[in-house]
From TrEMBL:
Keyword Zinc among record annotations: no
Domain Potassium channel, residue spans: 64-132
Keyword entries, A-Z: Ion channel, Ion transport, Membrane, Transmembrane, Transmembrane helix, Transport
GO term, biological process aspect, one: monoatomic ion transmembrane transport
Record's protein name: Potassium channel family protein
Transmembrane spans: 6-30, 42-70, 111-131
Pfam (any one): Ion_trans_2
């Protein structure tokens, strides 16, 4: 059990480093394109926000890949595809249960799920921050009756 805890915490630390790197990269991407939001169309704004979202998503998928590599290294899965699938189910806390690890390593599943909740939460917070900023910056550019409730939200 202690070995699994040590492996899980070490993997979480590696995932946190990746998350911070990609989160920082996504916020730098947004900052670089923030001036493009002035007077941008809805589609232009969506393109910038999509870039942020894809960088954050890449970070989460990278973490799934790290956990999958650990599972395969430990001999839990014969092929990487199965390890990646199982890792994604754990990370997202989906919990299908169609593939399970051995009794010796099953504690790594909940540890990864905790890691996933925390890292997806960080991604969500970063994305919502950029979304709110983009809406605030464009609230005057999007002048329609439907846009009025957006202006009220950010004012």
């Amino acid at each position: 059990m202690l070995l699994n805890l040590a492996l899980g915490v070490a993997t979480m630390a590696l995932c946190l480093a990746l998350q911070i790197a990609l989160l920082t990269r996504s916020l730098l991407y947004y900052a670089k394109h923030q001036s493009d939001l002035d007077g941008a169309s809805y589609l232009g704004t969506m393109a910038i926000l999509s870039g942020v979202m894809f960088l954050l998503m890449f970070g989460n998928l990278g973490q799934v890949a790290i956990w999958a590599a650990l599972f395969q290294f430990l001999g839990e899965f014969k092929n990487y595809d199965a390890a990646f699938y199982h890792s994604a189910v754990n990370f997202s806390t989906l919990g299908y249960g169609d593939i399970v690890m051995s009794d010796e390593r099953k504690l790594l599943g909940p540890i990864q799920a905790i890691n996933g909740v925390l890292m997806v939460g960080m991604s969500t917070a970063a994305f919502m921050t950029t979304l709110r900023d983009a809406i605030k910056q464009n609230r005057h550019g999007w002048t329609s009756k439907r846009g009025e409730h957006i202006r009220q939200l950010v004012d």
